[in-house]
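Need tokens for this chain, all 340 residues.
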Amino acid sequence: MENIDYKELGFGYVKTDYNVRCRYADGAWGVPYVSESEEVSIPIAASCLHYGQEAFEGMKAFRGVDGKVRIFRMRDGARRLQSSCRGIVMPELPEEMFCGMVKQVVELNAKYIPPYESGAALYIRPLLIGTTAQVGVKPAKEYLFIVFVTPVGPYFPNGFGISDFVIMRDYDRAAPLGTGRYKVGGNYAAGMLPNHIAHKQGYAGEFYLDAKEKRFIDECGAANFFGIKDGAYITPASSSILPSITNKTLMQLARGLGLRVEQRPVAEEELAELEEAGACGTAAVISPIGRIDDPVRGVSYQISKDGQPGPWSTKLYKAIRAIQYGEAPDTHAWTTLLDI
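Here are the structure tokens for all 340 residues:
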């Protein structure tokens, strides 16, 4: 679109032309259909509005160096949505239907895919909501699945630049045996206030410790956390952490680059030993961390000594981006290629 300055685009919402929808009723999924509307009509008593029966995914499509479009790890998104559905008792969307609708919506909105080298991408948002009108706390019987897209720029204003974070001891994102492992809206609502406080204090975002002991690193805002130490890529293991597809990708790339991968509990004190650290997710890919403050304990962990992303974070960032843009071979079959 000639009216969009893709190089100046932030991570927001831009209306596109079409979305693709499918309804679930009477125990079965219907036939997907195309809509030009941005709006959804649901009852005021819909279960998604009152009891949080909703789940979503996030992925991106990229215009590559060869002019072709690549959707990154689409099937992983389909499977993670199925996991979220099992977690809050919603009907699982068949993987092939999910993938077909994602490809269709990208093709329908091809003119909004940012050009190669713009630094922007087409963000894909699959959304599943319970639409049954009821006031009792129970799973809905009808659901609406929607896939829409919007062009986006970097999640953090400084892109692949150093960001500082703060540990929020007075807030929990998710309980160990709760819904933290699922991509549902309630987890993000729980982080709204601490994120707001962190931003007011001048930080890029907030860190959560485990809700049970307040000893171990959990998540970094809405992203997974990783650190580099002694030739190892280290990332927390916890039942309350969302299994990030980006983190899963980085772990595999790290092994290929010669790093050991350790997925285990990471005590807060270990932050002092890290050579590099970052927050990772679909939106930001990697946000290298400069400093992490713990105001309650009066401790500050200076990760980046020179104010620049570390060498391993840079290698990992370049490796994933090269695959997404078709600059490097996709030896892991992570991308779905569209010739549009």
